[in-house]
Amino acid sequence: MKHLLGSVLLSAFLLSGCETLSSLKPVGSSQTDISSGLQSKISEVPQTWQASQARLGDVQIGWIDRLNDPILSGLVREAILNNRDLQAAAANVERAYALARQAGVPLKPTIGASGGGDRTLFLTGPIPDTSAMNWGVSASWEPDIWGRLKATQKSAYASAESADADYIYAQHSIAAAVAQTYLAAIEALLQIDVSKKSLATLSETDRIVDVQYAEGLAMAQDVALSESDLAGRRADVAVAEGRYRASLRALELLVGRYPAADIETSKALPTVPALPNADTPLSLIERRPDIVSDGLAVAASFYNLDQTKANRLPTLSLSASTGSTSDQLKDLLNPDQIFINLASSLTYLIFDNGFNKALVEEATAQQRAALSAYAGTILKSLEEVETSLDQLTVLELQVNALRLSASEANRALRIANIRYNEGEADLLDTLNIEARVVSAESALVSAERAVLNEWITLNLALGGSWE
Question: Is residue 92 a part of any domain in this protein?
Fold first, then answer.
């Protein structure tokens, strides 16, 4: 048997002509190989964040609850349970792990059993009726000589774990999307209040203008200006109410409800929590789920290359079977009737017109692409954190400036109304100042929501879990 196996291997080697087994033998990727490949892409990551306001310390979890809005916390948990995209992602994770388990099946022998019987009846003639019964058990196994099957299994499990990490990041992203859509709905509600407050002011101004016009103290031009601004503000209220309903429907869609625009929200924006700890850039690489997912995809590509190389090497199959055939049931287990069959086969594809070589080249290119994608995800993630840290400073300055702007515009409007009522200022100046009040207050509401949005974006970028 040993001489036969050696002859087959030698013949296959000689016939292949241009390749040796050592050149085809897979590298056998280890954790060190993969870690080295990953490390080559993160060697230039700095030790600290460049944004001056970054705080060291472990990244906090439970950032949704830190907004201290029970309605929002409940909606996020509802979305995690009901969101259709998340349900599809969860099903894909289950499928990936099932495929990984399937990939491990060939590593162990397979065993099967069979049994049956038949009877032949002759309607006429001297030939007697015949019957036969049989049973059998068979087993087969492919020894994983070159590590091909193990590489296939490792690649499948790395892919499954990558899908799992993507699912976790999808949960984080859905939580952030629900929170930001929720805040957009509250902002729309507050913009309605700004427009209605302005509408009330303009309605009072219009009433005064009508009285003055009736008494001959105001011109028809003043009446037209007042009516024009009043109608314009009514339009602003209608638009703001439409945006509010659209935000509610978007929120309902995220949490898996029918978009009826009747979901409950708070009436005011939550207080901006303190800036979260940012730890270090290197810790982000180990923690953020989408980076982890791409790292696992790199590992899968290493194992896939090993498997592809091993596919070009000889495969050995072993099989054994036993059973019995008899025309008498009592003789089926008779030792004299039982047979045992042992077999082995060695297969080596001598010439495939370059097909498997092309597969190796494809797997090598896929490995390079996975490493590049991994590096790209890292750089994008670092950029997101640095940008959020910077933008939070910018937005804080903007909110403070807009708060002062709105306060001073309201003070100017109070003075203008007094001067107009006393005949010391014309209507156009008063209406212009009122428009500036609306603009400043509306911008302030948007900026306050933008700060909260950026705070959520930073937590998501840092890879902090929402719960």
Answer: yes
- Determine the Cα–Cα distance for residues 463 and 135; give it in Å rounded to an integer: 60
Is residue 56 one of the residues assigned to a domain? yes
Beta bridge partners of 277: 55
Which pLDDT score is estimated for 188? 94
Rounded Cα distance, 259 and 248, in Å: 8
Residue 129 pLDDT grade (very low, low, confident, very high; cuts 50, 70, 90): low
Q: How many domains is the chain partitioned into structurally?
A: 1
Here the tokens at position 197 are: 């407050």
Determine the structural domain holding residue 301 and report its residue range: 19-106+146-314+354-462
111 CB-near residues (< 8 Å, 6+ apart): 137, 138, 139
Give the integer Cα–Cα distance in Å for 434 and 440: 10
CA distances 279 to 45, 49, 173, 286, 465, Å, are 14, 9, 20, 11, 14
What tokens does 15 get?
Answer: 């016939």
For 19, the token pair is 């390749």
Query: Does any domain span residue 404?
Result: yes
CATH number at residue 300: 1.20.1600.10
Percent over 70 (pLDDT), the chain: 85
Q: Which of 405, 72, 443 is nearest to 263 (CA)?
A: 72
Q: What is the DSSP letter of 274?
A: P
Within 8 A by CB and 6+ apart from 204, the residues are none
SS3 content of the chain, % helix, strand, coil (to 5): 65, 10, 25
